[in-house]
Amino acid sequence: MRFLAVFKAVETNEPPTPEHMAAMGELIREMTEAGVLLATEGCLPSAYGVRLRQADGKVTVTDGPFTESKEVIGGFALLQCASMEEAVEWGKRFLAVVGDGETEIRQLHEAPAMQSA
């Protein structure tokens, strides 16, 4: 099963410390070797982003930063796990490295396998 883990954090413009980067690199290495981590990326501050909103057929584009936000997406990971419980355990390990924040884990819809004719 595939899962999307989205990390929500208090936004900061402070770069991670070298120690934090090393600890995250070690966790990413371990998850990759275990075949769990399919993709991961951190997000730049919301000042570099935009939001799109559609209402009544009209699209509005709002430039960041999004100061009114209580939760800012700090990054994501795409995981391959046997169960939600396994994904939660990896999420706990991630939070132990990254610190305060919240990770939302959602199972992804899997399309049925195509059958050969």
Descriptive tags:
Alpha-Beta Plaits, alpha+beta, four-stranded antiparallel sheet, 2 helices, two-stranded antiparallel sheet, single chain, 117 residues, 35% strand
Task: Summarize the structure in words.
- The protein is α+β, with helices and mostly antiparallel strands and 117 residues long.
- It is built from 2 helices and 6 strands.
- It has helices spanning 18-33, 84-98, and strands at 2-9, 37-42, 50-55, 58-63, 72-80, 102-107.
- The chain has a 4-stranded antiparallel sheet. A two-stranded antiparallel sheet has the order 3-4.
- Strand 3 and strand 4 form a beta hairpin.
- Helix 1 (18-33) packs antiparallel against helix 2 (84-98).
- The model has no long low-confidence stretch (mean pLDDT 89).
CATH topology type:
Alpha-Beta Plaits
The name of the CATH superfamily reads Dimeric alpha+beta barrel
**How many domains comprise the coordinates?**
1
Radius of gyration: 17 Å
Shape: flat
- Please summarize the sheet with the most strands: 4 strands, antiparallel
Q: Which runs of at least 5 residues are low in confidence (pLDDT < 50)? A: none
| Number of DSSP E strands | 6
Identify the CATH architecture. Answer: 2-Layer Sandwich
Average of per-residue pLDDT values:
89
What is the straight-line distance between the termini?
26 Å
State the share of residues found in helices, binned by percent. Answer: 25-40%
CATH class, named Alpha Beta
Number of helices: 2
H/E series, N to C?
A: EHEEEEHE
Alpha-beta content class: alpha+beta
The order of strands across the largest sheet is 2-5-1-6
> Beta-strand level of the residues, as a percent range?
35-45%
